[in-house]
From TrEMBL:
<feature type="transmembrane region" description="Helical">
    <location>
        <begin position="21"/>
        <end position="40"/>
    </location>
</feature>
<dbReference type="GO" id="GO:0016020">
    <property type="term" value="C:membrane"/>
</dbReference>
<keyword id="KW-0472">Membrane</keyword>
<keyword id="KW-0812">Transmembrane</keyword>
<feature type="transmembrane region" description="Helical">
    <location>
        <begin position="82"/>
        <end position="107"/>
    </location>
</feature>
<protein>
    <submittedName>
        <fullName>Aste57867_12720 protein</fullName>
    </submittedName>
</protein>
<dbReference type="Pfam" id="PF00335">
    <property type="entry name" value="Tetraspanin"/>
</dbReference>
<feature type="transmembrane region" description="Helical">
    <location>
        <begin position="237"/>
        <end position="260"/>
    </location>
</feature>
<dbReference type="InterPro" id="IPR018499">
    <property type="entry name" value="Tetraspanin/Peripherin"/>
</dbReference>
<keyword id="KW-1133">Transmembrane helix</keyword>
<feature type="transmembrane region" description="Helical">
    <location>
        <begin position="52"/>
        <end position="70"/>
    </location>
</feature>
């Protein structure tokens, strides 16, 4: 088949070299974004930075098998092809680990429905239910979300555009502020520029004017929606990193096919059908005649 011909496989090997470098560049960019994103570090923990570092490390490994496959495509060197296969399989294994770890970061410690129930004002009027929610409010997950939310809030005081994304999040999720309304330790949260009645605010650092709305029984905070806001991006990154392993594995199959191809095609020897010239037969009389001529 033309698809599995030697020339096609060699061309595919050269192309795989370029694509492996493209995979490396993609992982490098994603890793740098994760490492540099302070908000994601605060909201989801330091594992975000670790995953970003893992992606950068993988991006530095991919050029090595890319070089081997490039040289192998030039000389059809089977040893280099085998080295390429081993290296790519090792890198893909690491990539699966990093991608799975990145995806796992987005999984919440507490189920979203449980956490959302703890953010509704009316639910917390029950002392027993409030006590059951203390594990969530005292968790590292909620503490990280609080740090990230307050960072956005402080940035929005100097730059109104910094809080626009969270203002839209509040509108879409029908929530206001991070935590449950009217349920901080002193019953009210600190005053904000738009929510300063009595020197305090009923909402937990609300973005925009939602804090001016009175608190009702179904009023709720945005902690779960805020976690989903970050988790959706991290899940996408993790899933993409996992899906990206299919490309180098395709290159492994290509290299395997090339390993089983002969370096040089068998060639039949050239057959010559030219008639041989007749050899002259000398008799004894001819030999004596030649001897007399020499004398």
């Amino acid at each position: 088949m033309l698809l599995f011909s030697k020339e096609t496989l060699l061309a595919g090997a050269r192309m795989s070299c370029v694509l492996e470098l493209a995979v490396a560049a993609t992982l490098f960019v994603m890793g740098c974004v994760l490492v540099a994103s302070n908000h994601y570090h605060l909201a989801l923990g330091s594992r975000v930075g670790s995953s970003g570092g893992g992606l950068i490390f993988l991006s530095l490994l991919y050029p090595i098998p890319a070089w081997f496959t490039f040289k192998a495509s030039q000389f059809h060197n089977k040893f280099m092809l085998l080295v390429h296969i081993v290296l790519v399989c090792g890198i893909v294994t690491l990539q699966l680990i990093v991608g799975g770890t990145t995806f796992a970061i987005a999984v919440p410690t507490f189920a979203y429905d449980v956490a959302a129930a703890c953010l509704v004002d009316g639910h917390l009027n029950n002392a027993t239910f409030l006590a059951s929610c203390q594990a969530y409010f005292q968790s590292d997950e909620y503490a990280g979300l609080s740090l990230a939310w307050q960072t956005y809030y402080n940035e929005s005081l100097g730059d109104a555009s910094a809080g626009q994304a969270l203002a839209k999040l509040q509108d879409a999720s029908y929530c206001c502020g991070l935590g449950p309304p009217e349920h901080c330790q002193s019953e009210y949260y600190p005053a904000t520029p738009l929510c300063y009645k009595g020197g305090s605010c009923a909402y937990d650092f609300p973005m925009g004017s939602c804090g001016l709305v009175g608190v009702a029984g179904q009023s709720m905070g945005c902690a779960t929606a805020f976690h989903q806001y970050f988790a959706s991006t991290i899940k996408t990154v993790g899933a993409f990193v996992l899906a990206l392993t299919s490309l180098p594995m395709l290159f492994v199959v290509l290299s395997l096919c090339l390993v089983f191809k002969r370096k040089d095609e068998d060639v039949l020897p050239t057959m010559s059908y030219a008639w041989r010239s007749r050899a002259r037969v000398y008799v004894a009389a001819d030999i004596r005649r030649m001897e007399r001529m020499d004398l």
